[in-house]
Amino acid sequence: MKNRKFYLAILLVLASFVPHSALLAQGGETLAAATLVIGEAWYIRDGKKVRVRPQTIFYQSDEIQTGKGKVHVQIGPEAVLQLAPYSYINLAQLYEAGETRNLVVELKNGTVYNKLVKKLPSGSSYEIRSPTTTAGVRGTEFVMTEGQSTEKHEDSDIPPGVYVNDGKVAVASSSGSLDLSPGEQVRTDAAEMQKKKLEEFMQKKMEIFAHLDVMKEKNYKMLKEMKEKNKANIDEIKRRQQEMKENLWK
């Protein structure tokens, strides 16, 4: 009985250091990390809200939220997005197998500037989903907004919609579906989806893409190795937890 109590106590201590979502992860996650943080930004993991710092490593199902601030998040070696003030996303899927990546970012509210610096490898996919709209990314630069901000900030004047600067974006909602080309936009709060020429104020906002870029390759590799080591440590803790569970009944 004493041995069982001892093993149970150790098991609980080990479990307290590992996020529940990390324990459930089966591997095969691409790297997602903060490359720039200005002002207020947090991530939420297993109910815990933590400030985002440069080089913070994210995991699948992490939620990222901004207040009076913004954050750049790189996802894999090709994609980077800027989360505008008072915005909220969920890293719903970060699947990676070899060179293939299947990525899904859920935009709960606010605005994201998305950029792919090069095309995704063959067989890969990348979507940004909101409660009303899905945008399929095809190697492009575009802005997507969900909801209307009640706080005044630099991007609070962008209505709900998808706005394309470069490349093509496949947009789908309950109102229909269409493909947007460079210099086109669609409002997603209208009863019917109609693409139009990019408004002048949005053309001005697209200048941000000249300064939105992925991190240097060596830095990406370093952070990716860190994430893989973290996963190896988590796997080892899981192995020890399983051993202790088995010892409880011996």
Q: What does it look like?
A:
The chain has one domain: Jelly Rolls (Sandwich). It contains four helices and 15 strands. The protein is elongated. The protein has 250 residues and is of the alpha+beta class. It has helices spanning 2-16, 20-24, 200-205, 217-248; strands spanning 32-45, 48-51, 57-58, 63-75, 79-83, 88-97, 100-116, 125-129, 133-137, 141-146, 161-166, 169-173, 176-180, 184-187, 195-197. It has a 15-stranded mixed β-sheet that branches.
DSSP helical segment count: 4
Stretches where pLDDT falls below 50 for ≥5 residues? 1-18, 20-27
Q: DSSP strand (E) fraction?
A: 35-45%
Q: Roughly how many Å is the radius of gyration?
A: 21 Å
Describe the sheet with the most strands: 15 strands, mixed
- In helices, the fraction of residues equals 10-25%
Number of domains: 1
Backbone shape: elongated
Q: What's the total number of strands?
A: 15
- Quote the distance from N terminus to C terminus: 10 Å
Mean pLDDT value: 87
What are the secondary-structure elements, in order, as H or E? HHEEEEEEEEEEEEEEEHH
Task: Write the CATH fold name.
Answer: Jelly Rolls
Q: State the name of the first-level CATH class.
A: Mainly Beta
Q: What's the CATH architecture? A: Sandwich
Helix and strand arrangement:
Layout: H1 2-16, H2 20-24, E1 32-45, E2 48-51, E3 57-58, E4 63-75, E5 79-83, E6 88-97, E7 100-116, E8 125-129, E9 133-137, E10 141-146, E11 161-166, E12 169-173, E13 176-180, E14 184-187, E15 195-197, H3 200-205, H4 217-248
Parallel strand pairs: 7-8
Antiparallel strand pairs: 1-2, 1-3, 1-4, 4-5, 4-6, 5-7, 6-7, 7-10, 8-9, 9-12, 10-11, 11-14, 12-13, 14-15
